[in-house]
Amino acid sequence: MEDGNSVALLKGVSDCLADFAGHFDLRIAAEQLLTTALTHIGAEFGYVGEVLYDGAGNPYLKTFALTNIAWDDATRRLYEESATSGLEFRNLKTLFGVGLLSAKPVISNEPSMDPRRGGLPHGHPPLNSFLALPILRGGTLIGQIGFGNRGGGFDQKVLDALKPISSTFAVMIEGSRADTRRKASELDLIRTDHHLKQATALQSQFVSMASHEFRNPLSIILSSTELLERYSQKFNEPKLKTHFERIRTSIAHMQAILEDVLVLGKAESGTLQFNPEPIDLAAVTHLVFQSLPSGRERCHLRITGEYEPALLDAKLMHQIIENLVSNALKYSAEDSGVCVELVFSGCNVAVSVEDKGVGIPPEDIKKIFEPFVRARNAPDFSGTGLGLAVVRACVARQNGTIQIDSTLGAGTRICATFPCTTR
């Protein structure tokens, strides 16, 4: 894929994310993503859908977006009738069915000769090549994107080019599901004026936060894409890479905000998953260090007690440590260190993060774990006010407790303790 196409793809993905954050309409977002993907890879038609399961546990696909390839009056009526509700595909003895059952990509550049094929309905336009791309979230298949009739067929290069599309659609499906659960919860909360006012206030805060936090990365994406569109032929390789990295970083920032919102939405609706298994907390911590965009050289790990695997949820622990470390780096001087300590004692393990930063005013500590709450000495630092609320939710879901000790102007230590060793 050429640089110009990559710019258009990344801009299309960022526009979809921004629109989705504003209305959480998965059907509109899916149509935008499908159009962007078809243009980017040069395929004639495609579909985007969510994977659901019937009463027997069999997967099936329900579309959110589908290219109109109707070939007669009956299929035209079917397409029009299903435009808003989506079509359901349940025949697993097909190429897309192979993808649903395996949760892996399916490439067929000669579908008519492929033994996995299920055949086409009478009158269906010729299918010369086919790709089914799985949409995974936490190792679980939650969606599928399919494409047909690309000149030259499909290969690994096309799969790699579509990674921004698949990862973005995964976030959107989770966001839509969380929004559905949130709306269902709101129907219960609406019975009292207090709960209604609280939900309205939180929604208002989210819209305000999102509009503010998305403005800067969207501006960066817009300026970089405009420069690349005008001057990409004149830019040298390092300059091209710089602009592409700015775009990718900005998209990652918006995705991270949506991730935090998803966690809080799941926690509030009681659907935040907890999958305990023996995990290497030191390895999780080092993975967090490696994923930091900057400041990793300031981070240190200390282990106290008899180290052993901890029976915890790796994804939730990664989110806890990542949020705490990111906060510690943000609110402390660039020449100061951040210490993550793992303390193993009896059947408990404690994870603490300590910095020598600005500290938190005593009057703010009681509310600092509430969504959108920021300390009064934080206006000079960027942030959403969601990080510590996410930490508290992830700790609580694992039956842990959290404690904060902070001295204004001297630093902060936050410690989460879990009853979860494998003894």
Summarize the entry for a quick read.
The chain is of the alpha+beta class. The protein contains twelve helices and 13 strands.
- The rounded distance between the terminal residues' Cα atoms is 52 Å
* Percent helix range: 40-55%
Low-confidence stretches: none
What is the correct CATH architecture of the largest domain?
2-Layer Sandwich
Q: Largest sheet, described in full?
A: 6 strands, antiparallel
* SS-derived structural category: alpha+beta
Return the CATH class of the largest domain: Alpha Beta
CATH superfamily of the largest domain: GAF domain
Radius of gyration, whole Å: 24 Å
Mean pLDDT, as a whole number?
83
Query: How many runs of DSSP E, i.e. beta strands?
Result: 13
How are the secondary structure elements laid out?
Layout: H1 3-23, H2 26-41, E1 43-53, E2 59-66, H3 73-81, E3 88-89, H4 95-102, E4 106-108, E5 130-137, E6 140-150, H5 156-161, H6 163-189, H7 193-231, H8 237-269, E7 277-279, H9 281-291, E8 299-304, E9 310-312, H10 314-330, E10 338-345, E11 348-355, H11 362-365, H12 387-397, E12 401-407, E13 411-418
Parallel strand pairs: 8-10
Antiparallel strand pairs: 1-2, 1-6, 2-3, 4-5, 5-6, 7-9, 10-11, 11-13, 12-13
Helix pairs in contact: 1-2, 1-6, 1-7, 1-8, 2-6, 6-8, 7-8, 8-12, 9-10, 10-12
